[in-house]
Amino acid sequence: AVNPDRLVAYMGKYFLKHWTQEGTQTRYISKISPHPNYKSETNANDIALLRLTNSVEFTDIIRPVCLWTEEVGTNVGSVVGWGFDEIGRIEEKLMYVQMAIQGEDTCNVSVANYSVKFNNDLTYCASFLEDTLECVGDSGGGMVFRTDDGIWQLRGIVTVSVVLQHQLKCGPQQYAVFTDVSKYHSWIKETLAIL
To answer: For the Peptidase S1 domain, which residue ranges apply (predicted)?
Structure first.
């Protein structure tokens, strides 16, 4: 188990190593609630909720994301993170890439041991749309989709990134595996009630 005293949440952070940035808010974590059926060996149920010690003030650069509630008419979403460059160094500036959700058959063929390691009902895989030397998709990063109304919805959380698969070039033939947040709505509601 991770000790909450070892974690800090930064909102509005753009430069990874700049500790003071205009508009950034820092919050400490008072409690971590991992999914009760989480298995580190297989990344099953790789989702947790964090309670912050203080509430977050929403601003022009710090906005909430909604949970996935409806199909948005596209399988292409954005993944944000610092990621890695072509030689495996962590990037300094926050980046985003677009990724496309792939079908289960594609995931089974393209991701090593996908059907063995991952519960296909609770995960999905996605590929990069184009070749890039920056590999965004840090473990724990979110995949978000924008609705026609301009609302951002969180669909997935990176469970296994390209870098964790020891591939430092990202492109349409590289895949990341995501925990499908849409399958955890009931657990999230129940946990928030007691968190």
So the answer is: 1-193
